[in-house]
Amino acid sequence: MDRRKFLKYAGCGAMSSATMMSSILNLRAMNAASIAHSAVYGANDYKAIVCLSLNGGNDSYNMLIPTDTDEYNDYAVVRSNLAIERQEILPLSGNTGGRTFGLHPSLTNLKALYDQGDAAFIANVGTLVEPVSVDEFWLEQKRTPLGLLSHNDQLQQWQTGITHDRAGLGWGGRMADLINDIQPPYNLSDKISMNISLAGTNVWQSGVNSGLYSISPEDGPVGFIGYDEYPFLQRAVDNLIDQNYEDVFKKTYIQGLRNSRDAFVPFTAAYNNVSVNTSFNESQGLSRSLYQVAKSIGARHELGFRRQSYFVDIGGFDTHDELLGSHATLFDEIDSAIGSFMEALDELGERENVIVFAISDFARTLGSNGNGTDHAWGGNIFTIGGPVNGGQIYGQYPQTLDFNENPNDLGGGIILPTTAVDEYFAEIAMWFGVPKRDLSIILPNISNFYDVGSSNEVNPLGFLTLS
Question: Between the CA of residue 312 and those of 159, 235, 291, 292, 456, what are the distances in Å?
Fold first, then answer.
């Protein structure tokens, strides 16, 4: 397929859509939604969501693999030298819609979680503005996401929930805005953000009034070096931070520093009171990050949190070359980390209160480029946790991966998504406590895929138990 032509069509389809951010984030709408929230949240419940970003575009058709004889044969032909040998695939039990599937051989913990009902997959999910067929896509009859096949655009859209425009605020940040606007405060801590990042600044946790608190995967909370040791340095830093700045960029930057300074002491005190004895692999970055998430969740009682979000990431998924070896290493790291994390949640008594949901830029082409794969579109993703209705595959996994037989193949093994990221995110938001009627504030295109005005209690996809 002509990639330049593909990008041209994708860009043109998106440019016809108007910018909506100013109206979506209207503070009156937020306030009205927040009032609605106050009746939804219980007094003592706790829920945390952990966003796991697989940066670079995960080749997810080598993660979740069909194992029926005919379907596997189609898979093996299409993937050619990149196919996983059938006898190496980890078979999944549970409900797979009358079909059989398995996982990459490195994902033993994920398989166990799926088999016991604490993990689920969302099949062929991707960024969409509205439902679109292959013909409608090529004839430009429907709006399509901005910058298809682009790392920056697509990962940003997974984090913002806005697929038709570039935006600087994330759907996680907008949720935090709603929660933080509740009076009396739902989260009792007024110095520490409910959004905690183990990967520095990210779009997903950025809101109008909500920022994030960043901690180190290696050391946990880290303050200004020398701040507590040298009074003259403390005075100098405070003098800079406590000034009022007119320039919006300076103001934003200084507010981040101010939040970090004010949060460090109470967060560190609570964090240091938590013991997590579960073993994590200290040589792997994702394990270190999820260890810090577990410690932070353990501190939530002392800090007075009833809602929290966490952001962690792992890079290396841009596998244009050496796919098989890279995937084995990356999946081993993910599998080890989530296995330890779930054990730690059990230790803390929090398994039923936490979900981990994965995101990635896009899937990759089914066809090999020689030793790897290139940028594509719809793919498969996983979510884990006690509230997950696991042991099932949601969405529509392609009936065949054969280029010539798959009606959603755009050419070269680029698959048109049949489930929108909006549906995936809406269900997470509803579990977190966002009323159905307020979903459009967080996900402006959700009504194109799910009736937010209906009194019907059917979930967008059904992979979470809403309570």
Answer: 12, 34, 11, 10, 34
**CA 335 to CA 338: how far, in whole Å?**
5
Q: What is the model's pTM?
A: 0.89
- Token output for 276: 């997590």
Cα(115)–Cα(388) distance, integer angstroms: 12
Ordered strands of the 101-103 beta sheet: 64-66, 101-103, 90-91
Q: Using alpha carbons, list the distances in angstroms from residue 233 to 215, 221, 226, 243.
A: 22, 20, 7, 16
b/e map of 356-367 (b: 16 or more CB within 10 Å)? bbbbbbbbbbbb
Q: Does domain 3-18+41-448 have CATH number 3.30.1660?
A: no
The CA distance from 384 to 397, in Å, is 19
Q: Per-residue confidence of the chain (467 residues) as pLDDT tens digits?
A: 555 544 444 444 433 333 444 444 444 344 444 444 444 445 468 999 999 999 999 999 999 999 999 999 999 999 999 999 999 999 998 667 789 999 999 999 999 999 999 999 999 999 999 999 999 999 999 999 999 999 999 999 999 999 999 888 999 999 998 887 765 566 666 678 899 999 988 999 998 888 788 899 998 887 666 566 667 666 776 677 677 777 766 766 666 666 677 777 788 899 999 999 999 999 999 999 999 999 999 999 998 889 999 999 999 999 999 999 999 999 999 999 999 999 999 999 999 999 999 999 999 999 999 999 999 999 999 999 999 999 999 999 999 999 889 999 999 899 999 999 999 999 999 999 888 989 999 999 999 999 998 888 789 999 998 87
CA distance 373 to 320: 5
- Give the integer Cα–Cα distance in Å for 354 and 351: 6
Nearest-angstrom CA–CA distance, 206 and 373: 32
Delimit the domains of the chain by residue range: 3-18+41-448
